[in-house]
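Weekly puzzle thread! Below is a chain. First person to post its structure in token form gets bragging rights.
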Amino acid sequence: MSTAIIVINATRLTQVEVQSPVHLPDFPGHNVSVLTVNCMIQGDRGGSNICQYVFVVCAVAMGAYIGTAMLLCLTCNLCGVGGVLELLLHLAQTGWWTATSIILSTYISTTNDHGWPREGDRNAVLALCWTSVPVAFIMAIFTAVEVVQWCRDYCFCCCFHRGLPHAAGADPERPPGETGAAQEQQKIEAAAEADAAAAAAAAPDFLLQPDPPPKAQPTAEVQLSAVAMQPPPQQVVEGGEKVQSRGSRARLCETCGAWAAGT
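Winning reply:
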């Protein structure tokens, strides 16, 4: 709204050339071709203090909002208490725009009664000023609600909670809800361990004994003879037949049996 007021005041109400014939109360009976008016809000030809006042009001209002936003951003919401600063800002803006609207209402009403031109522009500036009052007040209400909630949480954490008795080993910085949840979890785990111990005590002994490790299967050991296989000696008897001796035949069987077992 401050931007709109600045635009209207700069383009429509400051340094305005009024075409003749125009009847002005300050110049009765005089008709001039072109008349330059410094400020159409003030109600006289040469004064411009009210228009400058409007520029200053809008600049201060905008600068306060921008400066506060930058401060809250650079300080991480003013270390958590930025809501208090915002509340003070909105309350100050409410009073600021209320005073401005009352001052402008007096001048604009007088100027309109004198019949000066551009009455619609003056009324638009006045309407924007009065609109800024409830807007700033509503923002102050919302900010006040946030500040009250913050104060309630802070007082509960730092005043009420610190005064409560704590169990041995409990963390006083932890909210009561989190401490209770941790205790409930510990109770559940203790009950589960107790149930497991009771079930183990009631079970038969053979169920609790571990299974014996599996026995290793025996492997057959084969010993191979280092004696190379030799053909059995042969004897030539009468009639030209080849006959193996009994001892040679026995050694051959032993060798063949060891070789068969190894394969």
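Puzzle host: Confirmed. Bonus trivia for everyone else. The longest strand covers residues 14-19.
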